[in-house]
Design a protein that fits this description.
- The complex is a heterotrimer of chains A (637), B (241) and C (247).
- Chain A is an alpha+beta fold and 637 residues long.
- Among the domains of chain A are: 268-401, Succinate dehydrogenase/fumarate reductase flavoprotein, catalytic domain (Flavocytochrome C3, Chain A, domain 1, Alpha-Beta Complex), CATH 3.90.700; 474-595, Methane Monooxygenase Hydroxylase, Chain G, domain 1.
- Chain A has 17 helices and 19 strands.
- Chain A has helices at residues 12-22, 28-31, 43-55, 93-103, 110-130, 162-180, 245-252, 316-320, 330-342, 359-365, 367-385, 440-460, 473-492, 498-513, 519-539, 551-575, 599-602; strands at 35-39, 58-62, 80-81, 155-156, 183-186, 189-197, 200-208, 214-218, 221-224, 257-258, 263-269, 292-296, 313-314, 354-357, 394-403, 406-407, 420-422, 604-609, 618-623.
- In chain A, the strands form five sheets. Chain A has a five-stranded parallel beta sheet. A five-stranded antiparallel beta sheet of chain A has the order 11-15-14-12-13. A four-stranded antiparallel beta sheet of chain A has the order 16-10-18-19.
- Chain B is mostly helical and 241 residues long.
- Chain B has a single domain, classed as 3 helical TM bundles of succinate and fumarate reductases (Up-down Bundle), CATH 1.20.1300.
- Chain B has ten helices and two strands, in the order αααααααββααα.
- Chain B has helices at 2-9, 11-36, 43-55, 58-88, 103-106, 108-127, 133-136, 153-162, 164-191, 197-227, and strands spanning 140-142, 149-151.
- Chain B has a two-stranded antiparallel sheet with strand order 1-2.
- The radius of gyration of chain B is 21 Å and the shape is elongated.
- By secondary structure, chain C is an alpha+beta fold.
- Helices cover 36% and strands 12% of the residues of chain C.
- Chain C has helices at 33-46, 118-127, 147-157, 164-168, 175-186, 195-209, 219-223, 231-246; strands at residues 3-9, 18-24, 69-70, 73-74, 95-100, 109-111, 114-115.
- Chain C has a five-stranded mixed beta sheet. A two-stranded antiparallel ribbon of chain C has the order 6-7.
- In chain C, a hairpin with a 2-residue loop joins strand 3 (69-70) and strand 4.
- In chain C, 62% of the residues are buried.
- Classes of the chains: A alpha+beta (637), B mainly alpha (241), C alpha+beta (247).
- Chains in contact: A-C, B-C.
- At the B-C interface, helix 1, helix 2, helix 4 and helix 9 of B face helix 6, helix 7 and helix 8 of C.
């Protein structure tokens, strides 16, 4: 496996312009001869499919949902960053770039991040033109809020439903192309396998979730925009169906998987309330703008929150990080919460929770203003917990939320498999070891609207269009493989349900490879995972048949891939013998418990090459160089 | 042109037909009520009013044809829409609860059909004199002002409502009508796209208010007859009984 | 708590469906309604029976996947709430719960509680967009939009496309869904160039899908988990009339 990042030469401000001037083009008349397969219809997938179709390519877009509008991008609440500097508060493309690199704890590729900051401004314009109803001032101009990890207000938002509105914007653009016939939309079809012909990605195999039909599709290039793998933890803020299958299948076919251990734990989720719990619900990070985080000073406190006097409360974020306070980055806020709970100062059932208190803000601004800003979030909290956050402080706890790791891509967003492009959360590119709030939406749309439309042409220009059809033996073979796998699931007839395995794996990963990891915890996990996997393949019970809508079968396929992927995640976490961003190795911390990086040995992206079911994957390193940002210890004090 | 074609084929068009024809009928009902209330002013007034209507000549026919058309379109659009609605939900729910809809709004088809039957009945009764021929042809009335002999509408109505079954049938029909009207007004304005919040605040109350006015106004006549506030006019000389 | 469930079971689109009764015990009031169904499904799987299929995904009330009639009300007894956000504390020990799929001919049942809502996508495809190619946009602040208009557009745009409006409507009408999109884009200056074309196309598609029509009973508004107002229907009607007279 060769890692060629294809970063253009020259000063960072000029790289993208230079690259756009130099990449090969496909002329308009030829574009319609190419067919591009886009898997996923979230922000990255829908925006890419729509934009490529606008350019004249033929696009097939696949989603396992009943509609492209259901992708999990829809659940993003808080906002989207852009270096517009509408607030005149000193923002700039460089500052957004700098904040993102620093927020990612210096484990992202500079050139990609700079490009992201550059196109961020175009995203806002594009979305406004599509009719995304961003929040506005009375004068009619766009308004901003501030977000964790930044000292400027650069986050655009649409109430607490920014992801929904951006996705509906991309979905409307996609719908327009579907009605124009340039995009063929395939709903309720799950990608099961990637098909390579002569080393190039040339198609996919899908299972129709209603009929159970296994079909193959050929194209001139494949784009994966299938999101992240937080559900490896079982409980996460991701939607129930989010999974690792498509990127894991691509990895097994030769695509390098980078930094799988870089996962983000979001600090403000509603704490778990019981064994039966199926998912965790996020409360937007924007709440930290007006909410103050605290726990009681003393351990095992039994008093109700309002009976605890000010002097006995510990506003630990404000205390430890005076300049960023409640707005310190996600990894730091999460770990701080874990720390105080580990000290026995956590609140609520099970002691895994901290207060997020709005009483000061309500006194200062009035309940009405707070309701305007966060009304829907407060309602959601009350629906779930039965407690009124206007009166009683919210209880929050960190939860797995986003995965920075993913398939390795070069500057053109192409993986190590020629023709296979990866966008959005599914790739590893822009967030390093930690993602800042309101940057996921930015990256998904940047990749889809403004990067891939340019860079895919560079690949396609060297491909003869339509040269491969799904009659090719590789396609036949892939279909047979998928069918074989499905019948294996159905023939195990064991005793345990898929969910019980998923829960067991998730618990193991959360305890051993979650907010804090150590050599011993990881080694323990690496011993347990193959055992669980072994039992899964011998003792899982998948009911029903292959030729019908079978939710049990769908879940089994996804969990089987998580069981393989989890091992790689732990291997990566073990290999990265340093702490950085969301990857916190307890062996490597400063005296006051902060992550301690080791730039000498680990200033690289770890890219793993699959080498078989039983053999250890091969590590490749992409060295990271920082020419525009000084490598420094992150400090939010 | 193509947009006009769209318009004519669409359900929204059918609803606009329903709304405008319904509003016309409501307009007629207001006029009809004002005329009917002349029963309280005695035979001279109401019989004179009836004569006045008759003397309108061709204009009366214009009004009649307009009303027949409005009624016809109202019935046509309701059939059209009802058939579509039935096809849209071929399998009923096992359990279905209504949320904020009023009973009146959910039973427009029932109340509408009741009104249709009533209108036919009403026409047969007081316009064509088929239901109670003996009271219809109850003799003439000599106008005190002109001496002209006219149809004795007043006595006909009194005689009709003195029959408790007839009075009761009218009361039931009026209940359906007011129920229909109470939803009709706001529905019509919503269908016609009246978005001005001040107007729609007014129109949302207009329906129930009109329904109440119609109910009280129209009911007052049979009740007036039954409790004896409206009595049969004394026989006039020179008029053959 | 204990519950008696009566759930619609249907193997596929063509098959006949019927209700089946299930008894559940040890249900925690802190569970969400879907977690309660998860418990049922785990029990069914343990017995080797087919689990109850239902659409769900985000479980935080925004993706619009979940769609079931619970005791005669779309998404159950709590207003402004999707099924996934409904919690069992809204039920009492020993309650009978009837669970049915949305019923409308444009929403055919695929299996159990899963219905095909692609008719909604086709309504959007007919015109629920602004025709602007990527890269065409001018600066986001070039067109100031009065805050009340932006807020109204947002309120209409909050629709999650779940179909509760159709499910609740006695006529199975999709007017609230269609109107929400027409209104969202109609409030914004960007939406004006295609405003007339959009409403005509979308209404044509809506009719073509076989939805019933609106008799303004307003049950849709009460059923909508996002509280989309029927005022949007009035706006659609107005736009439709205008488009016909002036278009």
């Amino acid at each position: 496996m060769k890692l060629e990042s294809n970063i253009p030469s020259g000063p960072i401000e000029q790289k993208w312009d230079k690259h756009r001037a130099e990449v090969k083009l496909v002329n308009p008349a030829n574009k319609r001869k190419y067919r591009i397969l886009v898997v996923g219809s979230g922000l990255a997938g829908a925006s890419a499919a729509a934009t490529l179709a606008e350019l004249g390519y033929n696009v097939d877009c696949f989603t396992f949902h009943d509609s492209p509008r259901r992708a999990h991008s829809i659940a993003a609440q808080g906002g989207i960053n852009a270096a517009k500097n509408y607030q005149n508060d000193g923002d700039s493309i460089f500052r957004l770039f700098y904040d993102t690199v620093k927020g990612g704890d210096f484990r992202a590729r500079e050139a990609n991040v700079y490009r992201l900051a550059q196109v961020s401004v175009n995203i806002i314009d594009q979305c406004v033109a599509q009719g995304v109803p961003f929040a506005r001032e009375y004068g009619g101009n766009l308004t901003n809020r501030s977000f964790g990890g930044a000292q400027v207000s650069r986050t655009f938002y649409a109430k607490g439903q920014t992801g929904q509105q951006l996705l509906l914007g991309a979905y409307s653009a996609l719908s327009r192309q579907i009605s124009a016939g340039t995009v063929i939309m395939h709903t309720r079809k799950e990608m099961m396998e990637l098909v390579l012909v002569d080393g190039h990605a040339r198609g996919i195999v899908t299972r129709d979730l209603v009929s159970g039909n296994v079909e193959s599709w050929a194209g001139d290039a494949v784009i994966l925009a299938t999101g992240g793998y937080s559900n490896v933890f079982y409980l996460s803020t991701n939607a129930m169906a989010c999974n690792v299958t498509s990127i894991w299948r691509a990895h097994k076919k030769g695509a390098g998987l980078a930094n799988p251990c870089f996962t983000q734990i979001h600090p403000t989720s509603i704490p778990q309330h019981g064994e039966y719990q199926s998912k965790l619900t996020l409360m937007s990070e924007s709440l930290r703008n007006d909410g103050r985080v605290w726990v009681p000073m003393k351990a095992n406190e039994n008093r109700a929150p309002h009976d605890i006097p000010e002097s006995e409360r510990d506003y630990y974020l404000e205390r430890k990080y005076p300049s960023f306070g409640n707005l310190s980055p996600r990894d730091i806020a999460s770990r701080a919460a874990k720390e105080v709970c580990d000290e026995g100062r956590g609140v609520g059932p099970g002691g895994r929770g901290v207060y997020l208190d709005f009483s000061a803000a309500i006194n200062r601004l009035g309940e009405k203003t707070i309701a305007e800003r966060y009304g829907n979030l407060f309602e959601m909290y009350e629906r779930i917990t039965g407690e009124n956050p206007y009166k009683i402080p919210m209880r929050i706890y960190p939860a797995p939320h986003y995965t920075m790791g993913g398939l390795w891509v070069d500057y053109n967003l192409m993986s190590t498999i020629p023709g296979l492009h990866v966008l959005g959360e599914a790739n590893f590119s822009d967030h390093g070891a930690n993602r800042l709030g309101a940057s996921a939406l930015m990256q998904g749309l940047a990749d889809g609207y403004f990067v891939i439309p340019y860079t895919i042409g560079h690949y396609l220009a060297g491909v003869k269009p339509g040269s491969i059809t799904n009659d090719h033996p590789e396609f036949k073979q892939a279909v047979e493989d998928v069918k074989g796998r499905i019948s294996t699931f159905l023939s195990i007839n064991g005793k345990r349900t898929t969910s019980s395995f998923h829960r067991e794996l998730g618990m193991l990963m959360w305890n051993n490879c979650g907010m804090a990891r150590s050599e011993s915890s990881l080694k323990e996990a690496l011993q347990r995972i193959p055992e669980i996997r072994e039992e899964f393949w011998n003792n899982v019970n998948v009911v029903g048949s292959a030729t019908e809508l079978n939710t049990a079968l769908e879940h089994a396929g996804r969990v089987a891939d998580f069981l393989e992927f989890a091992e790689l995640m732990c291997i990566d976490a073990l290999q990265r013998d340093e702490s950085c961003g969301g990857h916190f190795r307890t062996e490597h911390q400063t005296e006051d418990g902060e992550a301690k990086r080791n730039d000498e040995d680990f200033c690289h992206s770890s890219v793993w090459e699959y080498s078989g079911y039983t053999s250890k994957p091969t590590l490749h390193k992409e060295q990271l160089t920082f020419e525009n940002v000084k490598l420094a210890t992150r400090s939010y004090k | 042109m193509s947009s006009l074609l769209h318009f004519l084929r669409s359900t929204v068009f059918t609803k606009i037909v329903m709304a405008t024809s319904g509003l016309l009928i409501i307009g007629f009902l207001v006029g009809h009520l004002l005329g009917n209330l002349l029963m309280f002013a005695g035979p001279e007034k109401i019989n004179g009013y009836a004569l006045g209507l008759k003397n309108l000549g061709p204009l009366l026919w214009v009004v009649r044809i307009a009303m027949i058309t409005a009624f016809g379109l109202h019935v046509w659009s309701s059939i059209e829409l009802a058939l579509r609605n039935r096809a849209a939900r071929p399998i009923a729910y096992d359990t279905k609860k209504s949320l904020k809809s009023t009973l009146a709004s959910r039973t427009m088809l029932v109340s509408g059909m009741a009104i249709l039957f009533f209108v036919i009945y009403h026409l047969l009764h007081y316009t064509f004199g088929i239901i109670q021929p003996n009271t219809y042809y109850a003799g003439g009335y000599r106008m005190e002002s002109t001496g002209e002999i006219v149809h004795h509408v007043y006595n006909m109505v009194v005689a009709g409502f003195q029959n408790p079954f007839i009075a009761l049938s009218y009361m039931i029909a009026l209940a359906f009508m007011s129920s229909h009207v109470s939803h009709a007004m706001s529905s019509a304005f919503q269908t016609l796209g009246i978005t001005n919040p001040n107007i729609s605040k007014f129109t949302s109350k207009l329906g129930p208010a009109l329904a109440a006015i119609f109910l009280i106004g129209y009911l007052s006549i049979p009740i007036g007859v039954m409790i004896g506030v409206i009595k049969k006019a004394p026989p006039q000389e020179h008029v053959l009984e | 708590m204990k519950l008696s469930l009566k759930v619609w079971r249907q193997k596929n689109k063509e098959a006949e469906g019927q209700f089946k009764d299930y008894a559940l015990s040890d249900i925690s009031p802190d569970m969400s309604f879907l977690e309660m169904l998860d418990v049922l499904n785990e029990q069914l799987l343990a017995k080797g029976e087919d689990p109850v299929a239902f659409d769900h995904d985000c479980r935080e009330g925004i993706c619009g996947s979940c769609s079931m009639m619970i005791n005669g009300k779309p998404h159950g007894p709590e207003s402004m709430t999707t099924t996934c956000q409904l919690h069992m504390r809204k039920f009492k020990d020993g309650d009978n719960v009837v669970i049915e799929p949305w019923r409308a001919s444009p929403f055919p049942v695929i299996r159990d509680l899963v219905v095909d809502r692609s008719a909604f996508d086709r309504i959007i495809q007919a015109g629920g967009f602004i025709s602007v190619n990527t890269g065409n946009a001018q600066d986001g602040n070039t067109l100031p939009i009065p805050k009340p208009d932006a807020d109204s557009a947002m309120d209409a745009a909050a629709c999650i496309g779940c179909g509760a409006c159709v499910a609740a409507c006695k006529n199975a009408s999709a007017m609230l869904f269609t109107a929400a999109k027409v209104s969202h884009l109609g409030y914004l200056p960007q939406g004006q160039p295609e405003r007339q074309r959009r409403v005509l196309k979308m209404v044509e598609q809506m009719d073509g899908e076989g939805f019933g029509n609106c008799t303004n009973t307003n049950d849709c508004e009460a059923a909508c988990p996002k509280g989309i107002s029927v005022k949007n229907i009035t706006r659609l009607n107005k736009d439709f009339l205008k488009a016909t007279i002036f278009g």
